[in-house]
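#struct-queue
[09:14] JT: dropping the first one here, sequence first, then the structure tokens:
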Amino acid sequence: MSERHLKCFIWVSFMLNYFLVFGSSLCCPTQLLHQKTDGKFEQKTDRFWEFDESSNSWVEVELPLDLFSCVNGNCTKVGSVQGREFAVAEKENLKGKESEENWNMNLPIRKRISLTKMSETSIWVTGVSGSIYERFWNGVQWVIAPHDLPVSAGRAISVFIVNQTILALSESGNLYQMQLSESSQPIWLEFAPPSYTTKKEEEQNSPTQITSGVVSHDGERIYFCTKNGSLLELTEVEPPRWENHGRPPGGNVAAIADAATIRPEVILTISSTGDLYEYDKSSRPSWKKHIWTEGSRKDASLMASRGCSIYGVGGAHSISLFLLTKGGDLVERRLHQRKWKWIVHGSPVDHQLTSITPVLEDEWNERFFSLFLTTAIGSVFQYRCLKYPGIDQEKDNQETWVSHEHPLHARAARNIAGLQIQAGRILFALDDGRLAELHLQGLGGDNTGPAHQVNTRKKSTLKYMWSTLDAPESEGWNAEYCMEQRGPTNCMMGIKDKPFDVGLTRSMTRRKGGQAVQTYMSLDSSSGINTMEEYVYPKNWINNNFRLRVMHGGKSFFLITEEGLIFEYVFNENVWLWLRHEHTTAMSGALGNYNGSLFLVDTQGSLFIRERHANGLIWINCTSMRKGKNIIGGRPWDGAVGRLQKLTTEDSLFFISKNGRLLQFTVALRKFKWKDCKNPTNAKLASIVDQEVFRENIVFVIGRNGRLYQYNKVTELWHEHYQSQHLILSRLPGTVMRRSPSSLTGSIFMVSEDGGLVEYQWSSLEGWNWVEHGTPSKSVVLAGPPGPCLEGSQLFFIGSDGEVYLRYLDQSTWKWNSFGFPYVDNVVAENERQVAEKDEGNVNYYSNKDCDSKVASIRPIPFSEYSVIFELRDGRLAEMQQVEETQWIWSRIIGTPTSLCIASYWTSIAS
């Protein structure tokens, strides 16, 4: 062995003895020598190699393996290398600790959520999105019916039901009444109160605007708080009769604590400064202020929220009003023997209370009243009040504060009171937009109607449990709306049908966890990236996935070349032309098409808009706008194929930043605005799988760790989807299959890291399921992202052999079909077809050595409902058209300005 090789061997042996060689890691010897060693080995991968002298090569070692440091023949164990299972467990343990810290953070206040009970079979909900829906028991199951306000009214924040009349309050402070139209369809009509305004407001022509309201204890009247701090009463609806009770001297009305529960005609209100006032129009003066007299409290200011009144807490003839302070403590204002007094009950240790749920007497315990309160971090506590005064609760051996925590991977909405729908059943709004029911075992849940009763003989052993209830698509969730057709989901009267098999026969592997597996795992957005998972994008990643973009279906599309040139293929006056769009910097890809504007990214990561202005075309630099960032990817599709884009006042495009965050760029009404949606905890993002095609208000993304996540743009929350640790997704965009806009059933198709097709399927009967379709054949894997989905059941893919494959449904069975690549004898080039008119017989273009008709692994695009555009390996384009249901043919080859295979093309400069 030469001296040079001997020195290298000694150095490598030293490094192996102490560090080994890490897979997918780079060690610099100079840096290692200067690092302080504390004898502690930190494992960051699960693949290691050692040098085998006999074979003169590196050999992967089997794990687990002990690590030793040897000096002068004395060897000391300094650590051990564990297998993949241990590494995953350690990562999950670290993730769990960080998640626990995040779960102790205060939640945001959801001002639009409200719960209103019409009856035991009808619950009205305003969601985080401002939509209104009814949860109705149709005799067979709970169904959901939409009751949204008209678009012009804006978002709803609450619903009031009085004397069989339904009123809704909008975010702008206007009231609307639900009435039946001439066709017996429910409609919303404005229900405006008279103008009770000051002179200044009269000059500004401002109508009376309402902020909140409470229905009276007898259900006959509604009391409202106005934006100018007055108390307004609606005494009758037909015809409308209003009374303005003004405001307390030196104060205002910020919330109504009690509406005629303590005494008829007596209203207790809370001011914005936290003072309690009493209004009684039969007394003089009408307004009285309740003052703290028992000592001074720094946190005596009350929270502007509704209280809870209970009879008999301080004696047979006492009545108590429970309120919350701004500091999050529970206090009581008790009236007994015509005397008022304050009682402080405090709060659970390290918790801040934010809402009180008015409940009936605890029928399951003869000794206690119960209050249910939510906290700032989304937990629910039960506070037990003794029914009989004078009994020491400690001697009674009963816990005062009982924690019910929260549903798994979800938290109760902050500042939103729950709603008792039945004794032993309480409904809570969740921070993520769903609902949850806290109920006694055997009494409630999503499949239990209001008439079901529990066996009271077992009441001593009953415990509360959580059931999570789904919300409709308006909140980004999966609950289907009810239907008019006969069946179990009928909006009025459900009828039990035989189970309908919506499953599909598959020759593939289904991955479904046990019943205890939670599909949605709650995550907090991360403001700082601290992930062990790193991912290096392949060369030309953006260009390979966003090279082609449809501008106008069947009429024009854009091509971004590898050199960064921009070309548009457009049909003009019965001739197909290539138009070149000039720009000062080279472009990488086209990331979106919205309302006639094309969004492109250059090689530096800057986002630009190409759009028509007056009689010309202009460029707009979006990254240079306030809070603009450099990006690396965008949404794969601009809506479902064949469906018109519905424009709204909240339209946005989403992008992936270079540092792995999700960015939202508002485009509606040209009010351009950037927003950083951050990223899931400890996971950088790689690509967008789908934006609001599969589910409204939801953006599905793949992390650089190969896991699937979703972002809800209504709640601004992240969730991770359950995924086997053995299933690693490629970092490529995906494709959505949703057959009907009226049904939420469908699938998201992605490619696994090993080149197989993966389906993530949703159905109302089975929920979410992972399904692995494998590859077209043993020798062929998928070489790029999924192509478009057409006809609701046909998907195109490009194989590693350069051929096009179709995955389609044939009588509920998935099948593969190969369409190869365009052959010379079967397809005539489009440009050749145009040139041939001038020079017949000149068809020897395919003898060019630069021609290769196999299909490149570039993401194809749908040019229309019945055609798909692919790129060939030689730079030309090829179009496939549908001739029968699942039969497609290569219809033409399109020469491009940069392809060497065909030099003739028609081109012009766009201006």
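[09:21] JT: and here's the second one, same format:
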Amino acid sequence: MIPCTKTGCHRWFRNKSGLTQHVNVYHPVLPSVNISVPVEQCQESSAGEEHSQVLPDGYGDSGNPLDDPSNSNPLAEYVGPGDRYYRNYHPNLTGRPCDSLGNFLPAGHPAEPLTDMQPDDWSPYSSRLEFELADFLFTRSQMSAANINELLNLWNASLLSTGGQPIFRDSGEMYKTIDSTPLGDVQWEKFSTSYTGEWPTENVPPWMNDTYDIWFRSPKEVIRNMLSRPDFSDAIDYRPFREYESATDSRQWEDFMSGDWAWKQADTISRDPATHGSTFVPIILGSDKTTVSVATGQNDYYPLYLSIGNIRNKVRRAHRNGVILIAFLAIPHMDKEHASTDAFRRFRRQLFHSSLAYILHDLMPGMTEPIVMWFGDGHYRRVIFGLGPYIADYEEQVLLACIVRGWCVKCLAMRQALDTDALYRSREHAEALIEEFDLKNLRDEYGIIGDIIPFTSGFPRADIYELIALDILHQIIKGTFKDHLVEWVESYLKAMHGTAKANAILDDIDRRIAAVAPFTGLRRFPEGRHFKQWTGNDSKALMKVYLPAIEGHVPVEIVRTFRALLEFTYLVRCNVITEETLVTIEDAINRFHKHREIFRESGTVQTFSLPRQHAMKHYPDLIRLFGAPNGLCTLITKSKHIDAVKDPYRRTNRNKPLGQMLIINQRLDKLAASRRDFSRRGMLEGSCLTATMQLFSTRAHSNMSEAPGLNRCNEDTDEAVDCPTSIEVHVELARTPRTYLITLSKLAAELNLQHLPTILEEFLLQQLDAYDNCDSDLPEWPTYGNKITVVNAAAALFYAPSDISGIGGMRREYIRSCHSWQNGAPRYDCAFVNTDSGLKGMYGLDIVRILAFFSFVSQSKRYPCAVVRWFDRVGDKPDTDTGMWIVRPAFTAQRRPSIGIIHVDTLYRAAHLIPLYATRPVSRNLKPHHSYDSFTAFYINKFIDHHAFSLLSDSY
């Protein structure tokens, strides 16, 4: 037996791992702290101050008891339009408003004013122009100090002749003004740590002598800023809840607070009556090493991000600063001789966990006793913190869970047989094992690294095994799809056909991928799959087009394997997941496991004990715990790398860049906070030009029209749109400079459609509701002007919350029709057309190819239209193997292409078609713009995005 040597402790242990666990949890030694602030800081406003007074024990101002602990009945409320859904809210942690001292307020008590500042107070800026200039130069243009100085010199020189005053003298003055902003101000601090363990008597490795700096910001102050944001007030859940469909009472999961984990945490917290009425704030963390420059040396950084579970997934995904950089962790570097030693590995792991524990330590008091914080809706509330999910890839997950690589971080399945059913890991079970077994048995039998203590061990209600979140990017998109299945297809072909023939087949697959027709936002693969460095976006793009490319070259079981995986991926990324969706997800998992056996039977692979594939089994349970996974994915932290790490690094002079990056991030936060504040006060309406004109002349303002900015229809990207969710879909001709007037006969000649005028007359009769009621053989045809307006695109605005979208779930894409796209080849997109709104999915839709967009005037009414070629559906259900609908170009009885004119109101959105290649090899000369003209049958690509997947999945 081994005793604990700490004074006053009388615990004994059977082995060293149990003693290590005990010491790290109950007798931790925190690293020494050296505080450093890179820029001048300002004091927080009094509205954000934390009050440390003792809170009333279960009573408010009125002296009446608050939530009765014996009342276990959830609070039910209808939500959404038409009472289609209802929620059961947690009965005890109710997010009840209080005053600044923590005394609960009566129901209906008005909120306090968010600010007492005047609507013309631009402090610390002197005017709107000064703020807009600083924001434009620093945030949007990311201009260097030298270029800012040059620009300001030119600008100030232009003012000399008029006697005008410069806005900023130079970049230093601009930076000083930004730094004096009190909003969004959370200072950077630093602590240093070093190795304190046993030293060898000789050949001391360099890492033992090094000091490691960790820069961080107070997570409590970052959370305070997030909770106080008025723009988040309508997108925050103050209470855990369970949501149900009213008609069927079936449950559904969306945002984090709808999951079982938040509810169970609230149950545990509310055992203490003093917490009743509080708001539970789960802390979501994420970290991931990133490389910012390979050409100039291996510059790695280790950012740590924070979010809170109360803000909804659409905010976290919409790049609205719902995920905040709070630290740069240390990365110990070592030469090859020492990097693989057990001592260095153990130090590196413990440095990671000790750093996290120290960074988060200021949250600890608020995890058991409520503290008071100001919220963006104008109310104070009591807050209880809790460590929530941690977003990380597999390599970081094993580091977090102190698990041996190759084991599952969630369950106890053996490393060699991961797909067997096994119990979930838990903190209590792991601690019992560590007290019972030595380090070798822990590693070999349970995959536990027993001499490292997870950072969660010192925090209440925190179980690291439960808190590790799903990782769609690395587990599914880059892992199972790209690194496993795509590589297995190549190995399978070589095993079945030999290297030479397999290479010929792979070249044809690459040509198929390269020849896919263009689509808004679709990444191009001009050389197929052959490029060196794959990103997550590359893998996501390949998923959209890969399945039809391999069909005909591989057995149907492989096609069905890919289909099952793709359907699983798109299902788990839905913004709302119902009980029915979970059943479909489990069916996709079962089909994937069934059909992938062809790879083992053919000898392509020997085992499926792969942690990333195995993780699919845990998705249904973790969705029930944490809600829809699209709000807890490394895709979010990866995108944050660009704004928080990579772009700031590029703006540095490369000399000690980290300090410069900290200042850049701090200034970006201040500018963003100022913009939110000015917007909330209605000070940023219209353009800066119109606002300035208004100051000088009311008349000039009244005659001054807003200069319409050109939209993004000339870029091949779709865009998130921040507008209310008031419509499901709306299509209109794009407002574009590429608009021209021609005659109808000229358009007919360009399209080689001599009967186009007749088609237009038939369209007008249909629009006037006269076609079917015409008794005369020669009706009086409606008239229209000789000139028509031709445009190159239409804009479709539709509700697509599972894709990248605005705060209301709205997304805009452009449907193209032009004889030269971006000064290159012609582009004529396909689209869905509403033909029967009473039917679901493809049963109420048809496919057309847009030959031209135009508008014309008839009887003083403008008609926005499209000349289209129709497609016919093949069969009355999707293809059995791929799960996709098949269409082919439609022909008239005279075997001419079926051409028509439709109103743009009947368009739904763009559609993407991929040819049925069968076994026919693709010509090396086939280009993407040839695709729709070179084949006779096509798949409707339901994997082009999540909205298309949902739309086409409603058909069966």
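[09:30] RK: nice, looked through the second one.
[09:31] RK: Residues 419 and 614 are 6 Å apart (CA to CA).
[09:31] JT: good to know. The chain has 29 helices and 32 strands.
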